[in-house]
Every structure is written in C-alpha cells, then in structure tokens.
Design a protein that fits this description.
The chain has 54 residues and is mostly helical. The protein contains two helices and no strands. The two termini are 12 Å apart.
C-alpha cells in the first residue's frame, strides 16, 4: 500500500475543506448544501483512490 498517496489524499481533503469553508461564507451556503458537497467530494476521492490499485 502506498502511504504517500494516502497522505496526499488527506492533505487534499483538508485543503478542499478549507477552501470550501471560504466559498461557503462568500456564497452563504446552508449546512445541507455544505454536507452534500462534502459527501460528493469523499465519494469522488474514494473512487480515485481505488482506481490507483487497478
């Protein structure tokens, strides 16, 4: 298992969450929209991560 890829994935997730928080404040997203975007991001990241093992 490649731990470097996992570390990069976690770093990207934190970066995405930080950026999304700034966008959410600017656009005044509700908590449901914020949750939906985060769930979508997690699903996409898991799909990308599992593709690297094929």
């Amino acid at each position: 298992m490649d731990n470097g890829g996992l570390v990069l994935l976690v770093f990207l997730a934190f970066l995405f969450a930080w950026g999304l928080n700034r966008v959410r404040r600017a656009l005044r997203f509700g908590p449901m929209a914020y949750t939906g975007v985060m769930i979508t991001f997690v699903i996409v990241m898991l799909a990308v991560y599992t593709q690297t093992f094929r």
